[in-house]
Amino acid sequence: MSFTTIPLTGSKPEQYDQLLSQVRGLLHGERDRVANAANLSSLVYHALPALNWVGFYFYDGTELVVGPFQGLPACVRIPLDKGVCGAAASTRQTQRVADVHAFPGHIACDSASRSELVVPLFDGDTLIGVFDLDSPEPDRFDAQDQAGLEAIAAAFVQSLR
Fold this sequence. Notes:
The protein is of the alpha+beta class and 161 residues long.
């Protein structure tokens, strides 16, 4: 299989639509969680500007454990009651944090990270993990980023079925 990325153009919503189309093509026909998470992390990391970490943490029944990612080495385990990732998993709500240093209980895996967006991954009521993006820029993520990345996360969950 050969996959070619296409540069994103247009408005931010148009760019996310293009990226989602690429994600669906990349994940099509593959159900392996690790393979899909690895390829998706790479695609998003290289497609979107101003990111220093993109990846997955998977729930092992007790805590979140680092999965495939792009960026500097990461924290291996995150309790559900700690950090932005834990908050997303335990509240079942996307966490969009403009300044991670102001977030209570923030876990500084990469000291260069200034803002973060974490999408919880659920299949029905079952927690799969989280899709985590960090940026060295404060307030990097807005509502359009959140909507686009939530759609990408949903495509990832759908690929596992």
